Queue: 2 jobs
Job 1
Amino acid sequence: MVRLDDSASVTKCWLSPDELDRFERTAGHDGWNREIAMQLMGRCGLRASEVSYPADKHLRWSEDGDIWLFEVRGKNTKGGDPKIRDVWMPEDVADDVHKYSRERGLVATDRWVDASTPSIRRWVKETAETVAQETGDERWLNVSSHNLRRSWATYHLVERQVDVRTMMSIGGWSDYEAIEPYLAEPTEKRIGEAMAAKHLH
């Protein structure tokens, strides 16, 4: 079930990996480009305003890291001009992007998602409404583009315990204050794993 925090003026929510899978597939029913957009936000941590930047020319395999990385020009959380950073891409997303580019006949400079930021936010809202209708669960209506990024950040920071410095680098946060809100409460699964490990000692 979608996790919610409505204690403040803005309701925050988090999707689990399985919920994210469902969200992506549902978006894809209205166009493959929509599914790619959801993956870029929910699996790679892009802001909605960054989704229309990358193209094949920005994606590369890092021999040193044994990972896929792609360049994004995004928000500078310290203010000023947009900042270029390298973003990590899971292998299954890279496979999807390569297949998408190939089947769409994109050249290296063609953007994967050629859409405005308002359009991308609208796609998220429309997908959320569809899933809410399909499941009868109104919690889905709270899902926004920022919540997809939030889900990505919290999953890696809290569930996978990726170090904060790495997350700041690939997520485009300039300081700890900017990333601190994403250090949300762990899921019940994570609490169980952590406490089970404690009992082994």
Note: The helical segments are 17-28, 32-42, 91-104, 117-135, 145-159, 164-171, 176-179, 188-199.
Job 2
Amino acid sequence: MRILVAEDDPRLLIQLGDALQGAGYAVDLADKGVDAEHLGREAAPDAVVLDLGLPGRDGLSVLRNWREQGLQMPVLILTARGSWQDKVHGIDAGADDYLAKPFQMEELLARVRALLRRSAGQAHPVITVGAVQLDTRSCTVSVGDRPLDLTSHEYRLLSVLMHHAGSVLSRTELSERLYEQDAERDSNTIDVFIGRLRRKLPEGFITTVRGLGFRIAAP
């Protein structure tokens, strides 16, 4: 899953990026409003962590522009302001959740997980499809009672597919969700990871839709 973080505090920006990458997400970083708005359009993030106090173009303006352009990714607003008026303005602009600074990183990660689940129509932190269970809290996967040993990229790829169970995802879409914005991408590596996952998962769990991509059956 791909997360965009827009924050003007350089230290907090790095901390957020490290925490989200450690949780298994591909992360894009922006410290200015214009850059954040551009990445929100071009990088196709699955969710956004957005600071209101961005320089050049504030977070509320960025968020309003996204929504006016029809972009529907879930957005978690960060701000040092704690008044109820700021929360109302953020929600009215199209935010899905709100977190005031200072905050615990564990709470932010939990809120991001919840946003991703809700946007995918999932209510429980453990996504279950057949015998396969993906725990979004611990970043672990099991088949029945048997835990699977997955690399970080295998976990990320399986997480994307299971969050979008029932949908066909192309190699390009999977590649975009697997790698950061400035990372070198090769959609052919998706086939390599799919092959590895298939050897570890039940037969037929990941299906190929000829000419379109890959799909996991809806739970």
Note: The domain at 2-119 is CATH 3.40.50.2300 (Rossmann fold).
